[in-house]
């Protein structure tokens, strides 16, 4: 029998709670749901709220079928909010918004990674933050990403911008920058310019081009996720990995002190302690007083 639970007055059917989703640790679907309900909800919901969500689904774990879905899945309850997100191939497209604990738990029961754009549903293509996805090419690791992140932090500060870091939950590191609302195309152009500057300043380490042949041993400074059509893993989402790794906010002391890749790997079990110790390290992204205007004019 499928268990039925009530969350904020909404009845939810929770399925396959004993299924192992993260085989390296034996983490079950029930434990994943507990992570979102008991640990992550208060931190992840503000970063999801009012943004259209894309799901990367892994219902049988990372070794099974893994697929992206943007449209509301079949059977989406009518109380789960959706918003128009027109696409060239589907002008009438809509996407889910995760506005409350009930919709978070409904989505978590589908077994998903949460991915969000840099803009809110009420202002499509107007970004209120900028992202740099630092992706290491083997044998480079997150250690090298941290070196590039520190350079970017200083460069952004020179333009009056604040940068905050989180792990990708996979191999790399994300830098997020709160902005006064600006067109996504302008944010993308500025981010690209800084990626090129990073490559010029750190030619043996940083790379702004995606070409695979160039990437071994270097850190790809991916600025493309600032495009209005792109999304980034939401802070605190679990990732579809053998272990239940989290896209976890980190301090600048942790970034600048990173000497081994393991130092910046955080799992679901680590997050309650980190939230108790630090609170939401990415809370400044939600604070209008931390947002700054996008620099304009030549670099």
From TrEMBL:
Keyword terms of this UniProt record: Ligase
Give the Gene Ontology MF terms in alphabetical order: DNA ligase (ATP) activity
Specify the enzyme's EC class, one word.
Answer: ligase
Q: Matching CDD domains, A to Z?
A: MtLigD_Pol_like (cd04863)
Gene3D superfamilies, A to Z: DNA primase, PRIM domain (3.90.920.10)
Q: Does the keyword Ligase apply?
A: yes
Question: What Enzyme Commission number(s) apply to this enzyme?
Answer: 6.5.1.1
Q: DNA ligase D polymerase domain spans which residues?
A: 28-281
**NCBIfam families, per the entry:** ligD_pol
Protein's UniProt name: Non-homologous end-joining DNA ligase
Report the source organism: Streptomyces bacillaris
The encoding gene: ligD
């Amino acid at each position: 029998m499928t268990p039925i639970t009530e969350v904020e007055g909404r009845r939810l059917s929770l399925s396959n709670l004993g299924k192992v989703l993260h085989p390296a640790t034996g983490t079950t679907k029930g434990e994943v749901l507990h992570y979102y309900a008991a640990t992550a909800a208060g931190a992840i919901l503000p970063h999801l709220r009012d943004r259209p969500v894309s799901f990367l689904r892994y219902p049988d774990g990372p070794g099974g079928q893994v697929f992206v879905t943007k449209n509301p899945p079949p059977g989406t309850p009518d109380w789960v909010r959706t918003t128009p997100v027109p696409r060239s191939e589907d002008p009438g497209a809509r996407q889910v918004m995760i506005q409350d604990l009930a919709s978070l738990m409904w989505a978590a029961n589908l077994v998903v990674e949460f991915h969000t754009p840099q803009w809110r549903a009420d202002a499509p293509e107007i970004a209120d933050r900028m992202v740099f996805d630092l992706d290491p090419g083997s044998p480079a690791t997150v250690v090298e990403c941290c070196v590039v992140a520190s350079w970017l932090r200083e460069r952004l500060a020179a333009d009056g911008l604040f940068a905050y870091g989180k792990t990708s939950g996979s191999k790399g590191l994300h830098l997020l920058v709160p902005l006064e609302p600006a067109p996504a195309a302008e944010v993308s152009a500025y981010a690209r310019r800084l990626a090129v500057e990073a490559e010029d300043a750190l030619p043996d380490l940083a790379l702004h081009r995606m070409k695979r042949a160039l990437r071994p041993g270097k850190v790809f400074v991916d600025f493309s996720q600032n495009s209005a059509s792109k999304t980034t893993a939401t802070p605190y989402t679990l990732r579809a990995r053998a272990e239940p790794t989290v896209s976890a906010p980190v301090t600048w002391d942790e970034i600048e002190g990173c000497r081994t890749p393991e130092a910046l790997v955080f799992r679901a079990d680590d997050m309650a302690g980190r939230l108790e110790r630090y609170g939401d390290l990415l809370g400044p992204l939600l604070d209008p007083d931390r947002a700054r205007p996008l620099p304009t004019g030549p670099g």
